Amino acid sequence: MSEEETKVEAATEEVPVDEVQAEEEASAEAEEAQVDEAQAEAAAEDADEIAIPKKKKKKWPIVVGVIVVVLIAAGAGFWVWHEQPSFCNAICHVPMDPYNATYDAQAGEPGVDKWGNDVTNSSAMMVVVHKDAGEDCLACHVPSIGEQISEGMNWVTGNYLNPLEERDLDELTEARGIEGEEFCLNSTCHDITRDDLIEATADLKRNPHVPQHGEVDCNQCHKAHRASINYCSQCHSDAPIPDGWLTSAQASKLPNKA
């Protein structure tokens, strides 16, 4: 074989090797391009995360909700306390201490009235009877908003009496705009009439509810924070005196009476 033929044959044999190398290089370049593209995409995503921070969950609705619940619970507790005797002297009325003592007396047992006088049977005080029936202060004393503000101002300025003056039914109901008798005889307390009262005590020798000398207000006999009195006894010595009650003569001699 001549030298020229040998060169031709060698060149022919080298062609496949170059093609393989070219293909490998092209494949490598393609892979590098894919890697570069993937890296570029990852970098772009990172840039987006940096540029747009994630939104944090808002906590203020939870905080507001907790505050509202606490305020409601506190308000409910305050309202319950507002109806108790301890509220009156704790917040405003220094003179209310002796009144609280009458509320704490036990029915059927000896006690002390708002002036410190002995009461042989605490059931003679209406506050004890009403407490035993499940009533609290506000069942009888229903002050209007205006009255509460007025009393609060009197407390702040010291414009109040100690001991307190005894008030009749007309004074107790003045702020509510109702008749004195309605303090007791109403649909939520004693849902009865004067005639019903007369019938209920018809068996007594002297019926105290018969208006023989004109109508007499309930509070002339029934006392809330001191022993009740048989009003008829001021004239009739044979008027019945329930256990713990007083005659008019005995009541007139009480120390510190209004």
The rounded Rg comes to 48 Å
For the terminal residues, how far apart are their CA atoms?
154 Å
Class of secondary structure makeup: mainly alpha
Would you identify the regions where 5 or more consecutive residues have pLDDT less than 50? none
Tally of alpha and pi helices: 10
Secondary structure topology:
Layout: H1 3-51, H2 60-82, H3 85-91, H4 97-103, E1 111-112, E2 118-119, H5 126-132, H6 137-140, H7 145-157, H8 169-173, H9 194-200, E3 229-230, E4 246-247, H10 248-252
Parallel strand pairs: 3-4
Antiparallel strand pairs: 1-2
Describe what you observe in this structure.
The longest helix has 49 residues, at 3-51. The chain has a domain at 79-252. It is 49% helix and 3% strand. It contains 10 helices and 4 strands. It has a two-stranded antiparallel ribbon. The protein is rod-shaped. A hairpin with a 5-residue loop joins strand 1 and strand 2 (118-119). The chain has 258 residues and is mainly α.
Main attributes?
two-stranded parallel ribbon; 258 residues; 4 strands; rod-shaped
Provide a compact summary of the structure.
The chain is mainly α and 258 residues long. It has helices spanning 3-51, 60-82, 85-91, 97-103, 126-132, 137-140, 145-157, 169-173, 194-200, 248-252; strands at residues 111-112, 118-119, 229-230, 246-247.
